[in-house]
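Sequence only, no structure available. Ideas?
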Amino acid sequence: MTRMTGRWSIVRLAVAAVMFAVAPLLIAQAPYEATMGLVAKIVYFHVPVWFMMFLAIFVCGISSGIYLFRERPAADRLAVSAAELAVLFGAMGLTTGPLWARVSWGAWWVWDVRLTLALILEMTFVAYLLLRKYGGPGSDKLSAGLALFGMFNVPIVYVSVNVWRTLHPSTTVVPTLGASMAGPFWWCVLAFLALFLVMLEGRRRLADQEAELDRLRLAYDEEY
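Reply:
I predicted one. Tokens follow.
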């Protein structure tokens, strides 16, 4: 069973690698955006990584809720795995965003509503991981509550550009992409999704192995 799972992981990783290899070719063929030109092509990377961050947060939040109310350790391990990916993809988004902003807005960073809320969301899950590592007894339940708080903030971050005045493009940009831009964009989204699923499964399996090792160590200590 473990060998079969490993083979499927390799297949999924190969699919993701092929998709990422093809993505630059599709992006190169896509037309320039009318006002921002070449720099707008960062959207093919910047927006998908935020999608993956939001997905990771929902996985973490739902798993944390299951752990909090059903006390299932497997759900807690999945939540921790997803939280690490949320921080990783969030860091990617916060890195690529200023590259775009420097050309579009003339500044690396502005305290725009969307940007500020996104930074707070990233810091929330950094706090989650720090709490898990250094919080001591009971930190698992406390971090689960923090994950739920972060998950309920995702819709606020998403709609913030439509509710408040903001420099950040609105949520209507992606649905209105022309066919020549939408094709490469959604290809990149699927490529990142494939990578996300591979990474989440790998990290979850590692968490399961760590839990089994802790169980065996505890059993050994009790016996000897």
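Residues 179-223 form the longest helix (45 residues).
Hope that gets you unstuck.
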